[in-house]
Specification:
The structure is a single chain. The two termini are 23 Å apart. The strands form three sheets. A three-stranded antiparallel β-sheet has the order 1-4-5. It is built from eight helices and seven strands. It is an alpha/beta fold.
Length: 215
């Protein structure tokens, strides 16, 4: 069984310029990642993903991987994704719910809000294990902030959802609070699962053998 949100019942009043630009940027960056050889793609993740130990000065990347300062990785990591399902899941929720939040905030404020939410999420995850040498990538932190804002703005909204149970397919109207609540629950469970699999990685110079965390 799985469910796919399709659209909500809140039309936006203005074109969602920033939502579409962010979505397009994430897709373009992923296509760039996908076009690279495997080792080059892995190098991009280490160069542009958030690595807590690098962010807090406990470890350093090899010179050939130092594309941006450690602090800048909290922003570049928001545009990287670990696979097409990772990308599609994040972009679907941004597309459905980001337009209403942008509509309420205006374009410039929405962009600042989006980046600050991603920054807060990256710092929070990094502070949990500041010595970790596992790169974190993905837009989930920023999108979580957008979804939280959506619930505050439209707590009684409904979402059209595609429900699939084997050969049973049906369209349902589901309260947005349930749809987004399930999204948050999946993110928390995914975070716990990845944390359990990480294990201990010593500080120092990072090798390309370290694992990868998606967010």
């Amino acid at each position: 069984m799985f469910t796919i949100p399709l659209y909500d019942d809140n039309p936006s009043l203005r074109p969602s310029v920033l939502t579409w630009l962010i979505l397009a940027a994430c897709v373009a960056v992923y296509l760039w990642q996908f076009s690279l050889p495997a080792r080059a793609g892995e190098a991009i993740v280490y160069s542009l993903g958030v690595i807590p130990a690098v962010l807090f000065g406990r470890a350093e990347l090899p010179p050939q991987l130092q594309m941006v300062p450690g602090w800048a990785s909290v922003f570049t990591s928001m545009f990287l994704h670990g696979g097409w399902m990772h990308l599609l899941g994040n972009m679907l929720y941004l597309w459905i719910f980001g337009n209403n939040v942008e509509d309420a905030m205006s374009h410039g404020r929405f962009l600042v809000f989006y980046l600050l939410c991603g920054l807060a999420a990256a710092l929070t995850q990094s502070l949990i294990d500041p010595g970790s040498t596992i790169p974190m990538i993905g837009a989930s932190g920023a999108i979580a902030g957008v979804l939280g804002a959506y619930l505050m703005l439209h707590p009684r909204a409904n979402v059209r959802v595609l429900l699939v149970i084997f050969f049973y397919i049906r369209l349902l109207n589901v309260p947005a609070v349930i749809v987004l609540g399930l999204w948050f629950a999946v993110q928390v469970l995914s975070g716990w699962g990845s944390s359990a699999e990480e294990g201990g990685v010593p500080s120092g110079r990072i090798s390309a053998a370290s694992p990868l965390a998606w967010c």
